[in-house]
Amino acid sequence: MLTAEGEQEMCSSSMDSPSKNRSLRIPFRCFGVDLTPDNIAVAMVYFVQGVLGLSRLAVSFYLKDDLHLDPAETAVIAGFSTLPWLIKPLYGFLSDSVPLFGYRRRSYLVLSGLLGALSWSLMATFVDSKYGAALCILLGSLSVALSDVVVDSMVVERARGESQSMSGSLQSLCWGSSSVGGIVSSYFSGSLVEAYGVRFVFCVTALLPLITSAVAVLVEEKPVLGLARGQNLSLATPGFVESSKHNIRLLWDAVRQPNIFLPTLFIFLWHATPQSDSAMFYFTTNRLGFTPEFLGRVKLVTSIASLLGVGLYNGFLKNVPLRKIFLVTTILGAALGTTQVILVTGLNRQFGISDEWFAIGDSLILTVLGQASFMPVLVLAARLCPQGMEATLFATLMSILNGGSLLGGLIGAGLTQIFGVTKDSFDNLAFLIILCNLSSLLPLPLLGLLPRDDPDANSKGSGEDIEMKSN
């Protein structure tokens, strides 16, 4: 999809030079989206988010082996690292209201890349305690969250007024790029940890956020009127105060609308169910003896599976009503998630399936299903955002979603502690897995909070055309 500026430029140039007009056409498409410079920038930022997964295994092994933390402590640090994602509206508000050096998008992308490079550089050199690690991981998370808000606002600007199908194509481009980045990083993540150690991986990771800073030049953005190059909008100026009040009023008016508040409540509860990921990581490494290299291969499979999930949604599910997608994927996810009990109890070996192959197959299926069920959340959030508040409102909705994930992670950490699952004891891990998966069914009675909409309906405006269930 071409930007408005690009369309105007093509219209004016067509009167002067047909050959120039042809040169402005975008012949390449991905997931049904034209690869304009703006869209390439968005895709590259999401690619960086995916490729930053290079450090994920290194962080897990660093917390477990170097800092000797228990699963519950690791889960708490993981939850703590999501805090920057809970205040995404602040970044959206700043991006919408406070230009840096005359730009609302480019400058914040550059800043986010520099923050990410700093955080991983510190992890590679000075950090040697769980508190220092938590702070650096937090800073790295802040970097990704900031860039995520900026590119999300660009996506929302394009998705507003489009059908669910086109909105789904835009989100597919974003998350497809992230999945490709995940594939690239997963191929090397485990082997690099095993061959060179976690510090080396942190050092390599420090270079990746600089890609975000570099692609900022591709963003087609005009300097904010009234601001000279290098001049910023002061937080104390009357213009900023009035802009702040206006944006806050718009945000409040938007959030309190039932067609936004009720779906958001469901998504929060859907993400707030407990998780047992940290406990499973300790089990697979300490009990089953999975090496970093093998876990890297598992991550490679899950990254490919994530891309397959995006393709599944884009090819078959983007025209399916949201309620049906959530119902089917939640039930399937709960049922298939309990198959981890087979790995924990060793039943797979009785059927001649090795732990390694079972782990790969299980991760593949669950990741495809999880990604396919997550895409509608992004599409719904993007289509609900009104004009002029794209970054702030979308960031608010995503913060609420991340708040649910944080709550689910902390509940999972508490349950891990209650069930007595530690780095050496896994007697009750099967019960923990069953409880976490069954709890994911609890939000299903609230499916009526989601809009009952025509997938191809245009969502332009305040969303009044989306019929909500009255009860």
Automatic annotation (TrEMBL):
InterPro entries: BT1 (IPR039309), FBT (IPR004324), MFS_trans_sf (IPR036259)
Stretches the record annotates as Disordered: 1-21
Gene Ontology cellular component annotations, sorted alphabetically: membrane
The protein's name in its UniProt record: Biopterin transport-related protein BT1
Cell compartment(s), UniProt: Membrane
Annotated TM spans: 40-63, 75-94, 106-126, 196-219, 258-274, 294-313, 325-345, 357-381, 393-417, 429-450
Family: Belongs to the major facilitator superfamily. Folate-biopterin transporter (TC 2.A.71) family. Belongs to the major facilitator superfamily. Phosphate:H(+) symporter (TC 2.A.1.9) family.
Membrane topology: Multi-pass membrane protein
The entry's keywords: Membrane, Transmembrane, Transmembrane helix, Transport
UniProt keyword Transmembrane, yes or no: yes
Species assigned in the record: Rhododendron griersonianum
Biased composition (Polar residues): 10-21
NCBIfam families per UniProt: fbt
